[in-house]
From TrEMBL:
Residue ranges of the region described as Disordered: 474-502
PROSITE patterns: TONB_DEPENDENT_REC_3
UniProt xrefs under Pfam families: Plug, TonB_dep_Rec_b-barrel
Protein name: TonB-dependent receptor
Organism: Flavobacterium cheonhonense
SUPFAM superfamilies given in the database record: Porins
Location within or outside the cell: Cell outer membrane
All residue ranges annotated as the TonB-dependent receptor plug domain in the record: 72-192
Length: 850
């Protein structure tokens, strides 16, 4: 039904213009999570009216019309007041904030997934992490150089690291929940997240917060289970040493400050943000082969600047950017005796390697905006960003060096840089019907992806004389005296990048776009967009979009859109390569992740990567009755040739020193339909303010086709890989937020319901004959995570005009996912599902403002 509605929407989807909309209002809510969205009737309170007026003046993502606001947009846009979010919840990072504030946003903390333990994969409307475009102040943000592998959601995808942006630097976040590749280019299949930086002046604000997680995991764990009782791994020592039991871990300290100052007397400003975070590891019940199951430790520092300087009455220079530095530390899988991977003279009791990383993000954007005598708004800018991801493996060894092995290695890493030049022009014609806005522009973007090698000991295998093996027929590999097996080379936990892995690749693309918005009457607006892009490595695309809004009465508006879109394959997906050890419950195997341009890839019949192609449609309405407001938007996203990571193909016959190989491919076509719902009530009675908001998303993704050609489908992209893909698009998520405030006190209570998720575990790699049939094997391998409801509570106390104390808990009742067995991906008792596996988090925060 939804699909048919979306097919038939086209130009019949209409909208009202801004003249009438100024007489009505929008105020959904500013509740516990500070979530604001567009509606139609103002509240009676003066404070609420002020917020409404501010929203009505916002130039929003999804439109290049300077007069377009959230109120009269033809597509669904969420406006999240980050100041309210960060002062009224215990969430430490942007992904955590959006997970509970935006209907269809999902992010997962990972464990045992190498680099993904340090950068959380995040998705919108169940699409991949790289199918949502991120902007800062309307300018394209660079992506992370990390590509998600192993047991992560969004495996095979890159994405933008939202946690590299300090929450205290953000004024608001605009989430366009609609395909927008025809407006903004590659990656905007699921939508666009625009982060608007602070511009306040003459005000010093900041926070000091502290929190910790309860270690009392909910489950039935056998005696001696790692990270229960007095069997916790010692996080201050290596070699599987144990520490005393503990009641809390993941201790987190966060200190932020923000200050703005005026520049001149004509609206110039400079706003500065500094942020420090220090979060210890968490450890949760796992199995002997995964003693370090839990979340990574993070120590980070952020500095951001946002500035604008008028150079004339109609022109200004602007610049913004910052630097994010993070030192992260996560455990890999445990090495237990007896094993050729262990040198007992170094680690008598085995060891659990630590994958640490130095992650640096630098960005700077600068430009000029002006208005010509002819009424044209002109914006010329250049934006540069770079991500560097450098691995250092600690508490490890190179077993082939035996007793001479170091215990720390520089394993190399990868970088991604992006430079974007933009020219944007727009003009509003008031004389054409009720107003017509024309915009067009051009973009030139270059990207560079590199992999740099680590030190020799991180990747090499040595012979009995301590020399790197270059002639396997005439050199002897050391053997383990306990097992008699040859000792493997490279740093255990994460093998370093070798000179053979080194990559330095770049590309460029040129874009031209045009879009227009026409207010046909007071009740009807229609817009369209067209964008051409040419990439130096795969060719050209042309995409279009049409959207409309219709006002049918005083309280109801209908809106809709239909568009085509695309996402270019990332340089990492084309050129990333690595040789690694894959651990499962059945043992370890050597894997080659082969780049797309490799002869090995071609030998398996894998073709050249091409762009993903999408068709988007949406249809929705907004309504307002008294103190109640509501928005309901249905959507459809069909993606053809989605880029995914295959399963493991037998590569032993190639004699390249590995057991298996896997590849990036245009592997599947998917169809996604869904519904976003926001219903809010807000009331002020005397000095008492009440609020209630229901935010929800219903999502249904199906794998429509697997493009395996002549290759075995179950190996190419089998049931297990499909389950990982679908887990990125949970069936539904609903949050009920209740809010109360009176004078110096406020309180928030939130209930978030996470839907059932099903994953297939490592039993899918077993012999099907052991289960009697393939259907029985799938049944045995299915790990079902049932519906769970997580409760958050926050209490705020205004101690003075300048200070406020906040205490609260995320996951107040310490709810965990359903317990599983030892076949799971990450080696703990749970996978990385949407609700997380950290348990209850308790916190206190002091806010100050001067």
């Amino acid at each position: 039904m939804l699909k048919e509605q979306l097919k038939n929407c086209k130009l019949q989807l209409l909208t009202s213009n801004q003249t009438l909309m100024k007489k009505i209002t929008l105020l959904l809510f500013s509740l516990q999570f500070g979530y604001l969205a567009a509606q139609d009737k103002p509240s009676a309170s003066s404070n609420d009216s002020t917020k409404v007026n501010q929203l009505q003046e916002i130039k929003i993502v999804g439109s290049r019309n300077s007069k377009r606001t959230v109120v009269n947009s033809a597509v669904p846009i969420d406006i999240i007041d980050v100041k309210s979010v960060t002062t009224q919840s215990g969430k430490l990072e942007i992904n955590e904030l959006l997970q509970y504030a935006a209907p269809s946003f999902n992010a997962n903390k990972q464990s045992g997934s190498d680099g993904a333990d340090h950068v959380d994969p995040a998705t919108l409307r169940g699409m991949g992490p790289d199918q949502t475009l991120v902007l800062i102040n309307g300018k394209r943000r660079h992506q992370s150089s990390l590509i998600n592998l192993f047991g992560t959601r969004g495996r095979g995808n890159t994405g933008t690291d939202l946690n590299a942006i300090p929450a205290s630097a953000i004024k608001r976040i605009e989430i366009l929940r609609d395909g927008a590749a025809a407006q903004y280019g590659s990656d905007a299949i699921a939508g666009v997240i625009n982060i608007v930086l602070n511009d306040n002046v003459d005000e010093l604000t900041g926070t000091i917060s502290y929190g910790a997680y309860s270690t009392k995991a909910d489950g039935n764990f056998p005696a001696g289970t790692p990270n229960t009782g007095d069997n916790f791994l010692d996080t201050n020592a290596d070699g599987n040493k144990l520490a005393d039991g503990r009641s809390f871990d993941g201790n987190s300290i966060k200190v932020t400050t923000n200050y703005g100052t005026k520049i001149g007397d004509n609206g110039g400003f400079a706003n500065f943000t500094a942020e420090y975070i220090n979060k210890d590891k968490t450890l949760r019940p796992g199995f002997d082969f995964r003693r370090g199951f839990g979340e990574a430790a993070i120590e980070g520092f952020n500095f951001f600047v946002n500035a604008a300087i008028p150079v004339s009455d109609k022109a200004k220079f602007y610049a913004f950017g910052g630097r994010n530095f993070r030192n992260t530390d996560a455990y890999a899988f445990t090495r237990n005796n007896p094993s050729p991977r262990i040198v007992t003279d170094i680690y008598p009791n085995g060891f659990t390697p630590r994958i640490t990383s130095l992650i640096v993000d630098n960005s700077i954007s600068a430009g000029f905006r002006t208005k010509t005598a002819g009424g044209w708004n002109v914006d010329i800018s250049n934006t540069f960003g770079k991500n560097s991801f450098h691995y250092f493996i600690k508490g490890t060894l190179n077993a082939s060096l035996e007793e001479a092995s170091p215990t720390e290695f520089d394993a190399g890493g990868h970088t991604l840089s992006q430079n974007t030049v933009n020219l944007d022009l727009s003009k509003n014609y008031d004389s054409i019907l009720n107003g017509f806005n024309l915009a067009f522009g051009a973009e030139y973007r270059t990207e560079q992806f590199t992999i740099f090698a680590g030190e020799e000991g991180s990747y090499a295998t040595y012979d009995v004389n301590g020399q790197p093996i270059t002639d396997p027929l005439n050199q002897t590999i050391p053997t383990d005296p306990n097992t008699g097996d040859p000792r493997p080379g490279g740093s255990q936990g994460f093998p370093g990048y070798s000179p053979d892995n080194v990559v330095n690749r770049s590309r460029s693309n040129v874009s031209l776009y045009a879009d227009g918005e026409l207010d046909v009457s007071d009740n009807f607006m229609v817009s369209s967009a067209l964008r051409f892009e040419n990439y130096s490595d795969f060719g050209s695309t042309l995409n279009g979009k049409i959207a409309a809004r219709l006002k049918t009465g005083g309280n109801v508006n209908f809106r809709g859109s239909i568009s085509s879109g695309f996402r270019a394959p990332s340089l990492a997906q084309i050129y990333y390569n690595l040789r690694f050890t894959n651990f499962s419950s059945t043992g370890a195997s050597e894997i080659l992740l082969s780049p797309n341009n490799s002869p090995v890839t071609q030998a398996f019949g894998i073709g050249k990567l091409n762009e993903e192609k999408a068709i988007n449609g949406s249809l929705g309405f907004t309504a307002s009755y008294g103190d109640f407001t509501a928005t309901i938007d249905g959507y459809m996203v069909n993606v053809k040739d989605r880029i995914v990571l295959t399963g493991y193909f037998d590569a032993s016959a190639l004699n390249i020193g590995v057991d298996q190989a896997q590849f990036f491919v245009n592997g599947v076509d998917t169809k996604t339909t869904g519904l976003d719902v926001v219903i809010a009530w807000k009331k002020k009675i005397g000095d008492n303010s009440f609020g209630a908001t229901l935010v929800g998303n219903i999502n249904n993704m199906k794998v429509d086709a697997v493009n395996n050609g002549t290759l075995d489908e179950q190996t190419f992209f089998g049931e297990r890989e499909k389950a990982f893909l679908l887990a990125s698009a949970p069936d539904n998520k609903f949050s009920l937020n209740l809010n109360y405030a009176r004078k110096w006190f406020d309180a928030g209570l939130a209930f978030t319901r996470f839907s059932e998720v099903k994953l297939l575990d490592y039993q899918m790699y077993e012999d099907v004959a052991d289960y009697g049939s393939f259907a029985n094997q799938i049944k045995a391998a299915t790990d079902t995570y049932g519906v769970k409801i997580v409760t958050d509570l926050t209490l705020g106390f205004n101690l003075s005009k300048n200070t406020k104390l906040i205490v609260g808990s995320n996951n107040l009742f310490n709810v965990y996912p359903d317990q599983q067995d030892d076949w799971v991906e990450a080696g703990g008792y749970w996978d990385a599902v949407q609700m997380g596996f950290g348990g209850a988090f308790y916190y206190a925060r002091m806010n100050f403002r001067f």
